[in-house]
Amino acid sequence: MKRIAYFGFVLGLSTALLSSLTGAQTASQTQDQSSLGDYARKIHKDPGAAKAKPKVFDNDNLPMDDKLSIVGEKAPANAAGAAPTDAANAAAQANAAASGEDEKTKKEADWKSWKDKVTAQKDLIDLAGRELDVLQREYQLRAAAMYGDAGNRMRNSGQWDKEDAQYKQKIADKQKAVEDAKQKLGDLQEEARKAGVPSSMTE
Length: 203
Hints:
Elements: H1 2-45, H2 47-52, H3 86-148, H4 150-155, H5 157-194
């Protein structure tokens, strides 16, 4: 009998506790639902309220592939007075490098132009020098043939005097052409030096 009474007492107590817990949980859920509904209505009326609330990180929304900043939000890259971004710096450096390359290319092209002028003038000097050498050799051969044969010299003295004068004039003209070409080469080299062309390209 005592056991039945004890069992009934425990059963009643358990039932009372369960009823109490169920009621409390129902009230808590109702309160949570009410709070959530109030919050949603508040956000709907005032959208700025949700933004004003700081973001809270937990295990569910913690970023895995980025760093968390505890300093604050990064300033906008295009804000007035903001420091240039890395991309802007890289672009500026690239533009400077491209400008430097363009300047270098232009300078090298200018130097090559001077070098070509000097080379062409040297070629003219070489050609004039060879022509002068041919004239001098030809004159020496003709003079040796004329003075080697006394009879021929006596028979053709007037013709030889004319040819001799012509050879000497041609030789003098060619010598002057060589000297003029050398003078022009010197002037070109001086102009190139004043233009900043390395002497190694014009010598």
